[in-house]
Amino acid sequence: MITRFAPSPTGRLHKGHAFSALTAWRAARAAGGRFLVRIEDIDPTRCRPEFDAGILEDLAWLGVDWDAPVRRQSEHLADYATVVDALDRRGLLYRCFRTRKEILDAIGDAPHGAAEAVRPGPHPADEEAALLAEGRPFAWRLSLDRARETLGARAWDALVFVEEGDGDRGLIRARPETAGDVVVARKDAGTAYHVAVTHDDALQAVTHVIRGQDLFEATHIQVLIQALMGWPTPVYRHHRLITGEDGRRYAKRDGSVTLAHLRSEGLAPATLRAELGF
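RE: above sequence
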């Protein structure tokens, strides 16, 4: 088994992260496998070096060890650009110049609901040419229509993944249409989450993706990208989310539950592990 813990350095780790890291780490070690740490730092506006260092510090305090090296996605943007280029050369992408507000407004105005509104489609050729001439920034979106045509109806209907988590279990049919035409290259980064994560899971030979239930829906589009790129689909295990006494999920903005704060208050790592069920 090879699995990974892949946080974004946009804040310090909290109890929810601790539960996720311990879940994946324990599964790998129990199977005699490898546990990887990947820093998903492709967002240049929110990621900070101090949070990167803090992640490793928090994991070490928690008693989690990992197999070197730590992969930092910001150091491999050229790898992801190669994937985006490959998808584009196959006619699977289109440029999207629309702003987030324009997309949200379109969702609100859509007569058939948001599911169809997040598939804005290509700009008319003359409009696209004018926007390019102006130097307007754009994102690359994956066209679900073109992806389905490329795979063929039979392969599209055969998109599946194995789920071993706390919710739905067994062989699950992927439904990438629920995600819409996702962004595969952001305007400011040259790539986006779905491309970077699937590329790295394939590159690092990850056999089991163990992560929170909040990322279950992302699996559907990731299985499609794996199929388009000829990459293997790992086994997925989406675990329950840890919540506070108020029933709300822990968040990085709540400093009172970060591991750094708990450590400063004198909490022992063994105490936290026991509280989380480890």
